[in-house]
Amino acid sequence: MVVSLLIIVVAGYLLGALPFGYLVARSKGVNIFEVGSKNPGATNVRRVLGHGAGNLVLFLDALKGAMAVALGKLATARMAADQGQSDAGLWLPIAGLIAAILGHSFSCFTGFKGGKSVATGAGGFLVLFPLGMGIALAVFAVTLALTRYVSLASMMGASSLPFAAFAFKQPSFLISISAVVAAFVIYRHRANLGRIRAGTESKVGRKSATAPNPNS
């Protein structure tokens, strides 16, 4: 179990650390750390390089989280088969997801700089808890339609996950981890909260008076 956990954590971190935002922007001759909000998340890439590049980064960042959870699930299934058990729990998939989120936010390939892990977390929860992720996406969409703040929509979507997990009677471990992830997403958006209060946060379809801010 310890060896499997270590492998999944390392693999999850390295997956999450892959700096797709930086690489996609660099392929177009742009250093994403020097333009816009200077953040490698999909939102900044989209604002700087357009929807095509931004959506590509969004997909790739989500894929990192999904793959990290999938690897954990595969390792769990193999352990369960070897030990003659029907279920070995959520430890490895969740460990992979947490490692991927930390890798995305603190990538070893970019001097421990990174995005806010919204897309990576969403990809992971899509595999881990699809129904809850569907609810989170709905909350995201409604919040974005009402406010046009991607940052606020990201925080509201993440915050809905633990409530969805509780409502659908998921394991207490999953409820707790989803709450931790939601808190982490909100923490990573703390500067955005200040700009929302000040009225200087960028809205979808309108540039703010200040530089755009990352939300993924």
Briefly say what this structure is.
The chain is mainly α. The protein has one domain. It is 71% helix and 0% strand.
Note down, in words, how this protein is organized.
The longest helix is centred in the first third of the chain and has 33 residues, at 51-83. This protein is globular. It has 10 helices and no strands. With 216 residues, it is an all-alpha fold. It starts with a helix and ends in an 18-residue tail after the last helix. The chain has one domain. Helices cover 71% and strands 0% of the residues. The model is unreliable at 208-216 (pLDDT under 50).
Number of helices: 10
Q: Indicate the overall shape.
A: globular
Along the chain, the helix and strand elements come as HHHHHHHHHH
- Structural class label: mainly alpha
Strand content: under 5%
Helix content: over 70%
Instruction: Please indicate the count of domains.
Output: 1
Low-confidence stretches: 208-216
Number of strands: 0
Major sheet description: none
Radius of gyration, in angstroms, nearest whole number: 17 Å
Features:
216 residues; mainly alpha; 10 helices
Mind sketching the topology for me?
Layout: H1 2-17, H2 20-27, H3 42-49, H4 51-83, H5 91-105, H6 118-128, H7 130-147, H8 150-167, H9 172-188, H10 190-198
Helix pairs in contact: 1-4, 1-5, 2-4, 3-4, 4-5, 4-6, 5-6, 6-7, 7-8, 8-9
